[in-house]
Design brief:
By secondary structure, this protein is α+β, with helices and mostly antiparallel strands. It has one domain. Strands 1, 2, 3, 4, 6, 7 and 8 form a seven-stranded mixed sheet that branches. A two-stranded antiparallel sheet has the order 5-11. Strand 7 and strand 8 form a beta hairpin. Helix 4 packs antiparallel against helix 7. The protein is globular, with a radius of gyration of 19 Å. The two termini are 15 Å apart. The mean pLDDT is 92.
């Protein structure tokens, strides 16, 4: 019986290829990285991808992330890959980076119609320090949410889902008085303002609810992943428990979610799946 790859397996094959380019550049330049979130869970529980997962996540300290961006300018194979950041793609509304595979396309539902590069990708998240104290932290995260939401609207995200809401209309109106570039500068200044402190708790601006500690980011070990060895948090149990609870128990089949994609095009890499 002939084996036929599922769409999820096809995406996994390509993002593993992209992930190895991230790691090649990190290793060449001695830049620490961590696989994180569902990618680390997959490494611990499955020694590879979660079978239904169709993305891949890296985590870095802000300093290592900036070093990675700089290294990509000289070492990234730009004939094959595109590094998408707030600087390289004007309407890209995230504070993280996506390393994309040129010649492919994947359009997620919430980014339909947004004028950005839409290649199949892996995510690279920078982590910044959170302020101490509940009141100060709540105020800090609220401002992050406000600025990020305004940028999302300004760049054209979520029109289909949210354009009829009052909050969307208000922020859309306020966005007329500030440029995309100025908003991005405001966000960067805000999220990095506590990085010279000794605070332990960190966050990534695009997913601020996820708990992260600096000690997790800097203490790493190797994990087998689809035949490779990737670096991840040494304190995986503490991290995964905080994020998923009983992470070794498989969720019910109806809760095994993948991303909702409006379009996927493998381009020239479609032939990879004929092997």
């Amino acid at each position: 019986m002939e084996f036929k790859m599922t769409e999820t397996q096809k995406i996994q094959k390509l993002i593993l290829y992209i992930a190895n380019e991230v790691i090649r550049i990190c290793d060449k330049n001695d830049i620490p990285y961590n696989i994180t979130a569902g990618s680390l869970l997959g490494a611990v529980r499955h020694k590879g991808f979660i079978p239904w997962d169709d993305d891949f996540d890296f985590a870095m300290t802000r300093n290592d992330y900036e070093r990675f961006l700089k290294a990509c300018k000289k070492d990234l194979n730009t004939d094959i890959f595109f590094l998408q950041t707030a600087e390289t793609d004007r309407n890209f509304a995230y504070s993280m980076a996506k390393l994309q595979l040129l010649g492919t396309e994947i359009i997620e539902d919430f980014s339909i119609g947004v004028d950005i590069h839409h290649g199949i990708f892996v995510d690279i998240f920078p982590y910044d320090k959170l302020p101490d104290g509940d009141v100060k932290r709540k105020k800090f995260l609220k401002k992050n949410h406000l600025l990020k939401t305004m940028l999302w609207i300004k760049c054209g995200y979520g029109v289909k889902e949210h354009s009829g809401r009052t909050g969307y209309k208000i922020l859309h109106f306020l966005g007329r008085f500030v440029t995309i570039e100025k908003l991005k500068k405001k966000i960067y200044a805000h999220i990095t303002k506590y990085n010279n402190t000794n605070f332990n708790d960190c966050f990534t601006s695009d997913y601020p609810d996820e708990k992260m500690e600096e000690k997790w980011l800097v203490n790493r070990t190797e994990y087998p992943f689809e035949g490779y060895n990737f670096k991840g948090f040494r304190d995986y149990d503490e991290y995964l428990s905080s994020l998923y609870g009983d992470y070794m128990t498989l969720p019910p089949e109806n809760e095994r979610e993948t991303h909702t994609n409006a379009k996927v095009d493998y381009g020239q890499y479609d032939k990879w799946f004929e092997e």
